[in-house]
Amino acid sequence: MKDCDETCLSRIDRFSFMSGRRSRMKWMDGHCDVLYKMWKSESPISFYECNESLDVTYPAAHSSGVGIQVFAVFVPPEVPRSQFLHAALKQVDLFHERILLHGKKVVPLLSREDLIRLKSSGRMGALLSLEGADPLQGDTAHLRLLYRLGMRQVGLTWNHANEVADGIEEERNGGLTRFGRSLVKEMKRLNMVLDVSHLSVRGFWEVIEEDLPVIASHSNCRAVCSHVRNLGDEQIRALIRREGLIGVTFVPKFVHDDPDQASIEGVLRHIDHICALGGEKCIAFGSDFDGIDQKVPGLEDTGALDGFREILLQRYPEPLVRRWTVENGFQFYFKHL
Ligand SMILES: [Zn+2]
């Protein structure tokens, strides 16, 4: 593991919003599918009570010190195309109605000022992200409308091709379409974050030098686990160069080539690999809770994050752990929202 350079640590300390006595903020989780699960469920599921249906609930997240949670809006491919936008809007409505609840405990993150207020409020910040631009249905007006409803981040594709680009599971490995390029331009104008998780390799290289903030919200390292959803070393180096974020994820098949062998130790190997490439300032976590059925033992739900943090602290210095679990993510959004 590369040693953390002094200038970086002192800069982080200066911007350390989490070190105040009032703040319990220990974690940022860069990806969960709570909204998708709520939308799919036939009966209402409460975010504010611990329950069997959700991996991420407010009481569990609060007890683990989750200060920022990114909520994905995801419309699965089985939905008829004509219903894509409707399904996304339903999930945005659930975000407002069931998660924010008039901002009593969870506040929307729309700007840098929201992050500043968050540090002393003891509330949880919630960032809305679109996982796959399919609901935009080839119209940038839909992007602008979702932005006005609170969307601040867009993953261009899920695994398949859409109007914007090819997803990672398309063998032809296509890059951005003409609409894709105009969408990126509009995202730049609106100051939105671009998420490259799920994007084709060619699409990745087409957007990585674009002048907008980039993040891989839930992807691991291909050198450690060969799944196509993971990032190659050159992609990781590019994200480091762009001062992006890499959300190390707990999806068993992205942790270990044999998902049944996925372990916390396996998750740490991905962290070590990113550090070996010089990326300790880019590491964050994107659990993918509520988007996965199989779990890494010991990382079953958001309530397990506190114990996972203890394991990290046994292995790495505290300033690095704090950076990975919360500060890198906080600073990234502080810089870009
Ligand atoms: Zn995903």
UniProtKB/TrEMBL annotation:
Gene Ontology molecular functions: metallodipeptidase activity
Domain of life: Bacteria
Stored InterPro entries: Dipep_AS (IPR000180), Metal_Hydrolase (IPR032466), Pept_M19 (IPR008257)
CDD domains associated with the record: rDP_like
Pfam family, one: Peptidase_M19
Gene Ontology BP term (one): proteolysis
Designated name of the protein: Membrane dipeptidase
Organism: Paludifilum halophilum
